[in-house]
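Human: For the file, kindly provide a plain-text protein record giving the amino acid sequence and the backbone structure tokens, at your earliest convenience.
Assistant:
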Amino acid sequence: MALTAEGRELTEANRLAQLAIAARAMAVSSVLWDGVDVGRLDQSTARWMPAQLAVLRRFHNDSNRVAGEYLRQYRLAEVGQPGDPIPGVFDTAEMRNTMLLAGPVRTKLLIANGMEPDEAKAGTFVKLGGMVRRQVLDGGRGSVNRTERGDRRAKGWRRVSDRDPCTFCAMLCARGPVYGSEQKANQVGGSGLQFHGHCGCTAEIIYGEWTPTETEQTFVNAYDAAAAEADAAGQSRMQSTILYRMRRDGSFKDSPKIRNANSAA
């Protein structure tokens, strides 16, 4: 976690502000998706896509702006000097492809599999809404990633949980500040920006030694137990050998005992 109490408060405030931005983006996107005519999906998509991309750009910019303000104040709190945040990039082609696959293409697949058109359209927004959330929040998350890479005093950035993570997110949170520079990115297999749809995690730059919070220590313990079991089985420590063990024995929202308890409630 951050070195200072002020830094920790700023990170939490940024997390909540980012989630509020995502919620607004999803609400506007829901209205736009309601206007799609599933009976004339191709024609509707041609009208829907420019409007949907405009929504993503607007809220992606908001996410960048809020993250920039946070990063300036956070660095001042942590090291005594403000920095120059580097905003995340809005990739129009990638945004369009993500919306196309999560929206119209998914709707067509559901219909092809026997679902009624209106039901398919309604069901699609569960996935589409999650992708809207992810694409918008990539503004602020990308800002943290790119800013850390340009900051010589930074030790890396860490994933910050929304306090009710799935096993995948808990596993990545347990790794601490291993993300950031090109060297670190290569070591952990990518930039670290592995955020799924509906994910509520954010990111925090670390300027000193990382000390897990009490909750994060439970993630670390779950990872260590799964890793020890994989080691004993002669398996490499990989997502495929760690994740299911953490999920099987853990108390994460997608763990069997949590899902079963929620189903019985």
Notes: Residues 215-264 form one domain. The chain has nine helices and two strands. The first helix runs from residue 5 to 34. Strands lie at 156-160, 202-206.
